[in-house]
Specification:
- The chain has a domain of 30 residues.
- Helix 1 runs antiparallel to helix 2.
- It is built from 2 helices and no strands.
- By secondary structure, the chain is mainly α.
- The longest helix is centred in the N-terminal third of the chain and has 39 residues.
- 92% of the residues lie in helices and 0% in strands.
Length: 72
């Protein structure tokens, strides 16, 4: 049994799952929120940047929640 290979395999699977989860959430979030956002702030570069920043902040908060849960 090659433990290092198994660890690497698990890390890869977790990475792929987290990437897929983020992509699915991001698509759903954008579909639900972006039209309202553009309606409020217009379809400007600045509005798009702000929307992306909010999306990033949500991702960071979710990851922090997961890390905090693992340390408890």
């Amino acid at each position: 049994m090659n433990i290092d290979k198994e660890i690497d395999s698990l890390v890869e699977a977790i990475d792929e799952a987290s990437d897929a989860a983020f992509e699915e959430w991001s698509q759903n979030f954008t579909e639900r929120q972006y039209n309202d956002w553009v309606g409020l702030f217009g379809a400007t570069t600045s509005a798009s940047f702000m929307f992306s920043a909010i999306e990033g902040a949500i991702l960071e908060a979710a990851l922090k929640k997961i890390r905090d849960r693992q340390t408890q």
